[in-house]
Amino acid sequence: MLFKAQIEISTRKDVLNPEAKAILQALQSLQFSVNDLQLNKKIYISIESKSKNDAFKKLDSMCKELLANPIIEDYIISIEDSKKSAKVIESNMESNIESSAKTRAKPKKKTPKKRGRAHKYDEFLDSISDKLKALKYQNDIGFPTLAKAINTAYGIKISVQTLYDYFVRKLEWKKGK
Asked: What are the Basic residues biased-composition ranges (predicted)?
């Protein structure tokens, strides 16, 4: 059965979006009274699948693997039957809740409670830790330069102190190493 899908990808609210910020500033400089601006991408896909549920799983997989960056972006999938106009709207947050419920079967080690804002970026930094190690140790660059590189490459404004704390906690970095 043929399904028509629409995927809307948006940058998460807490992530810096330089393109949206530049457009907002340009509009304000032209005397338009705009307070907030968000840029989204829409992708239209026709997909052959056995059922809506199967089509959703395929589309969700496409988003996770290629179309969206789940670290800094959210996405919403809308599926429409080519014969009927009934829509099924799902978001990646709902599918993540289901998938995390399935993976919680085995007990995890107890970890101390995270405190402060330094841990806010741990998941993101874990995903790029190999790149961080390579930049820090092979190129011998400082934390301010590393923080600036992260801001430029990923659009995430991270403080030098947060980055330093991450290296000490997670990568067991010692000063002078």
From this structure: 103-118
Burial 149-169 (b: 16+ CB within 10 A, else e): ebeeebbbebeeebbbbbbee
Decide if 91 contacts 76 (C-beta within 8 A): yes
- Residue the block writes with tokens 């419920």: 101
What global pTM score does this model have? 0.46
Residue 103 has pLDDT above 50, yes or no: no
CB 121 within 8 A of CB 104: no
CATH topology (fold) of 2-85: Mth169; Chain: A , (3.30.1280)
CA distances in angstroms from 60 to 37, 63, 150, listed in the order given: 26, 5, 27
**Predicted confidence (pLDDT) per residue in 33-73, tens digit:** 988 888 899 999 999 999 989 999 999 999 999 999 988 99
Within 13 Å of residue 131, how many CA atoms lie on the same side as its CB? 11
**Residue that wins the pLDDT comparison between 140 and 133:** 133
